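Both lines are retained for reference:
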Amino acid sequence: MTDQMGLWDEQSPQPLQETRPLLKMVREMVREKALEMGLELDDPAALNEVADRLIVRLAEELFDEEVEQVTAEPGVRRHSRMRGSIGFGARRLEVRVPRIARADGTTTLPDRYRRFSAREQQNETVARMAGAGVTSRRYREALVAAGEEVPRGLGKTAFQGRNRKQADADLTKLRTRDPQADGTIVTIDADGLAMGSKGKKRTVVVLIGTTTTGARVAIDIATGQYETAELVTGLLRRTAERGVDLRRVAWRIDGGKGLAGGIRAVAGASAPVQRDVEHKRRNLKDALVDEANFEQVNGQLSHAWAMTDPGRALEALEACATTLDALGEEKAARSLRGDVEQTVTFARLGVSGELLRAMRHTQGIESVMGGVRRRTRRITTWTDDAMREAWVAWALMREEAGWAPIPCADELAALPDAVTAERARVERETAAAEQGAEEAAEQGAEEAAPGTGA
């Protein structure tokens, strides 16, 4: 009985004042009626049948009550009845609905019928089944295996249509809600997900933020042929328009050039970007000529990236690269030295302990991407980018419901100021380096000019 009543509760989009008394009344009436009919109280099918009849009768009485109140107004009268249906849990029940004739000649339905006929519960049932990997082709089989009948209004076509409608609604919600409702966003993870069959793949770039309270929130998505800087730039500009201050955010990426280029284009060259240390480790291993040499440097890498002093960490990483050079692994050494400063970004921001361990890699967003793949694995035909984005948003919203907050809220709250200070330091050093280069160039030009030599 409780599941059947799922639609009429406090979480309904437009809850009625008579909801609680109605549910209590139905439960008591079903129990009494079942005893009168000699039904077993533990027989769900029999109880559901009795509940259906009582719900229909009560709903029709509520419709009549509203019509009587409305027709008391001048020029308004009762019209004939029409067939309709109301939502009851995940099912639809047929009812007879009285119509109201207005003075201007129009005919309307009771407002209660409009609210009782909502389909939110059915949509959620469809979403849960799709999330469990049930396709429209096996929808009826799944219901039969669960001992259920195919509800009215939830056949194969409705199953397909409501799946997509729910996905579209989730995409709209993702892009229109306030991403900072639970706190100011202080870090953003960015990654791309290839979706589609071979030869028809498109990349969906996903942004996930962490707030000052430790909450993680899906921000937005964008789709393109590849994970390009142009695609990421457009996505980030849209994020900035929603009130996220990208100049006070720390970034985490796997090292993709398109992601890095988009961040530089919108947040500036001084934006603090943390490159995933595990990707760096794998790239180094792939570049080795002799994989046996990996064991000689792997421990050094872990020790260096665990340091809270960024200067010492970089010295330890350079020592590791020197070891690789001595072993004849010049390619692996170059791989390690490339953008190595970005592997200690959060250490430069003053992060330590548990938060540093969590922030120096991108396993969080990679786990989310795995969940999106799992939830959409049954979709084999992707018609367009709108479909890809809708289903990724649908999967993200369900993944987000299970995300645990990141601890160390005090350190997270201090990150924006640390980001501002780090950007100022980088900009000062960059300006000083540019000025030194200009002075050196001018001096060289003067020395090379005729008649200025000794």
Observations:
- Residues 1-19, 141-150 have pLDDT under 50 and may be disordered.
- The first helix runs from residue 19 to 36.
- Strands lie at 77-88, 91-101, 107-108, 185-195, 202-211, 216-224, 250-253, 273-275.
- The chain has three domains: 1-117, 119-176, 181-400.
